[in-house]
Amino acid sequence: MKIVNLAHAAVVIVLVGIVIVRVFVQGLAPLLLESVGNVMIRLRNSGKTILLVEQNLPIALNVAGVTHVLNRGRIVYSSIPQKLRENGEIKTCYLDL
Predict the structure, then answer these.
(1) 26 and 72 inside one domain
(2) DSSP one-letter code for 73
(3) Distance (Å) of CA 5 to CA 13, 32, 64, 83
(4) Which residues form the domain of 43?
């Protein structure tokens, strides 16, 4: 197991075949956010599995191949990112949008 801290922007845990990421976006410069997002997209495109725990919906939807919305520890909705973008009910009920 390897833990990497990318300029205090993300904690990345690299296990065999999976990358677990928790991004801390509050207070980050937009350029740094974009950079972290680009790294995650490159990892995804290289075939790595990424478990991204993120509350910033634009970042999550840009990186994800599949999205899961959790409420009190339970998955209440799963889809591809485009379907979540289009689902007003889920966004209103669970994502405060």
Answers:
(1) no
(2) T
(3) 9, 13, 21, 32
(4) 1-53
Taking only the tens place, the pLDDT of each residue in 59-68 is 889 889 999 9
- Token pair 């990112």 in the structure block, residue: 81
Please report, as a single letter, which amino acid is at residue 40.
Answer: M
Q: Which residues pair with 58 in a beta bridge?
A: none
Alpha carbon of residue 76 to chain centroid: 17
Please report which residue ranges of 1-97 form alpha helices under DSSP H: 30-45, 57-63, 81-86, 88-94
Q: Which token pair is 5?
A: 């801290």
* Separation of alpha carbons 18 and 77, rounded Å: 23
Say if residue 14 is in the same domain as residue 37: yes
Q: β-strand 18-23 against 49-53: which pairing, if any?
A: parallel
The pLDDT assigned to 25 comes to: 63
Q: What is the pLDDT of residues 44-95, one digit of tens each?
A: 888 888 888 887 888 889 889 999 999 999 999 999 999 999 999 999 999 8
